[in-house]
Amino acid sequence: MRWYVLKAVSGRENHCREQIAIQLKAHKLDALVSQMLIPAERVTEVKRGKKVSSERKLYPGYIYIEMELDQNLIDVVRDVDGVTGFLGADPRNPDPLTKDEAERIVRIATAATPDEQRKELIQIPFKLEDRVKVKEGTFAGMEGVVAEINAAKGEVRAMITVFGRQTPVWLEVWQVEPAV
């Protein structure tokens, strides 16, 4: 079985997943589908002075489905109301996710805590002692060396020379790029 990405109407992903399961049972194709995931995170906000907890989709409009590629299955799934098709160039033959992409989506969807989930979402392309250049912010254009990595927050601490002194600066991953 391979993982595929199914496009659905944004906001109706859960309804589509339920309808797909119903249709698969009705057509006796449920053995060809291992699991369907809709990665989401728990968000707590304060609204009108009260704490409100809700679920926010990480990839709105997408359902991840592990299945055997079968033309009858594809037809049944595509006919579900709210499903707009599979991700891929050929609508009759969807493109599967690579093994690495699939493993990452499963880790994100099954993460036990929000911190673990955030760690999976934020990929840090640097390691200790890498030279980086700041793209945005107060220190834009300056270069430094990665001294510490906080994967949970998606930040790196770079040692940047400011006024002739080494200064530690916490930067978000999107603010830096590899120095050339």
Rg (CA only): 22 Å
Name given to the CATH architecture of the largest domain: 2-Layer Sandwich
User: Could you name the CATH topology of the largest domain?
Assistant: Alpha-Beta Plaits
Total beta-strand segments: 11
The CATH superfamily of the largest domain turns out to be NusG, N-terminal domain
Report the end-to-end length measured between terminal Cα atoms.
42 Å
Number of helices: 4
Helix content: 10-25%
| Largest sheet, strands/sense/barrel | 5 strands, antiparallel
CATH class of the largest domain: Alpha Beta
Structure description:
The structure is a single chain. This protein is α+β, with helices and mostly antiparallel strands and 180 residues long. The chain has 2 domains: 120 residues, Alpha-Beta Plaits; 48 residues, SH3 type barrels (Roll), CATH 2.30.30. It is built from 4 helices and 11 strands; from the N terminus they run βαββββαβααβββββ. The strands form 3 sheets. The protein has a 5-stranded antiparallel beta sheet, with no helix packed on it. The protein is elongated, with a radius of gyration of 22 Å.
